[in-house]
UniProtKB/TrEMBL annotation:
<dbReference type="Pfam" id="PF11706">
    <property type="entry name" value="zf-CGNR"/>
</dbReference>
<protein>
    <recommendedName>
        <fullName>Zinc finger CGNR domain-containing protein</fullName>
    </recommendedName>
</protein>
<dbReference type="InterPro" id="IPR021005">
    <property type="entry name" value="Znf_CGNR"/>
</dbReference>
<dbReference type="InterPro" id="IPR023286">
    <property type="entry name" value="ABATE_dom_sf"/>
</dbReference>
<feature type="domain" description="Zinc finger CGNR">
    <location>
        <begin position="149"/>
        <end position="189"/>
    </location>
</feature>
<dbReference type="Pfam" id="PF07336">
    <property type="entry name" value="ABATE"/>
</dbReference>
<dbReference type="InterPro" id="IPR010852">
    <property type="entry name" value="ABATE"/>
</dbReference>
Length: 193
């Protein structure tokens, strides 16, 4: 059974990497189709420029491949950083190339009595989305916050999270934290039975 899209709310680059999971039957891609990519983008609408409704139907396998490529480069780079290693040169190059494929231009406009800046990107939808995600990865990778990146301690979870509280151990206390507590409880009571 394929898990539903993961929790969101971590930095955008972490949310992207968390669209891959490992379940007992093996690795699962929760963003394996253009429709699932659209669903994920919709959930991230408050953090990135959303494609128009008309563009939704234009999402195709090439768009998905561009996003998957950025996800892979981001995952490999974050993994290296978490281990205190130098990131793979090809992963950094891939993130840079994704940004270069659809460079963002800060467009200024006057709305509601205030100056507003929005990022406008040229090009095909998949390249624009991939460039935005690569930029989000670059932002995280150069932010001191990346030092607080952790992998969930629940044994069957591979989700990443930023531990802004040093005591945080799970991607979600309500899901993985609860699983760990229930397993401990069961183990204690099984031993006494």
């Amino acid at each position: 059974m394929k898990p539903r899209l993961p929790l969101i709310g971590e930095p955008l680059a972490v949310d992207l990497v968390n669209t891959r999971a490992v379940v007992p039957s093996g690795p699962v891609d929760m963003m394996a189709t253009p429709a699932e990519l659209w669903e994920w983008l919709t959930r991230q609408a408050d953090r990135m420029t959303m494609p128009t409704r008309a563009e939704r139907t234009s999402l195709d396998e090439a768009d998905l491949a561009a996003v998957h490529e950025v996800r892979e480069h981001t995952a490999r780079t974050l993994s290296a950083i978490r281990r205190g290693k130098r990131p793979p040169a090809d992963a950094l190059r891939g993130l840079n190339e994704a940004q270069r494929a659809a460079p963002g231009i800060r467009k200024l406009s006057w709305r509601g009595g205030a100056l507003v800046g929005t990022v406008d990107r040229p090009g095909k939808l998949g390249l624009r989305v991939a460039a935005s995600l690569a930029e989000a990865a670059a932002d995280l990778l150069t932010d001191p916050l990346v030092e607080a990146l952790r992998e969930c301690e629940e044994q069957n979870c591979v989700m990443l999270f930023v531990a802004t509280n040093p005591r945080r151990r799970w991607c979600s206390a309500a899901i993985c934290g609860n699983r760990v507590r229930v397993a401990r409880y069961y183990k204690r009571h099984k031993a006494t039975a």
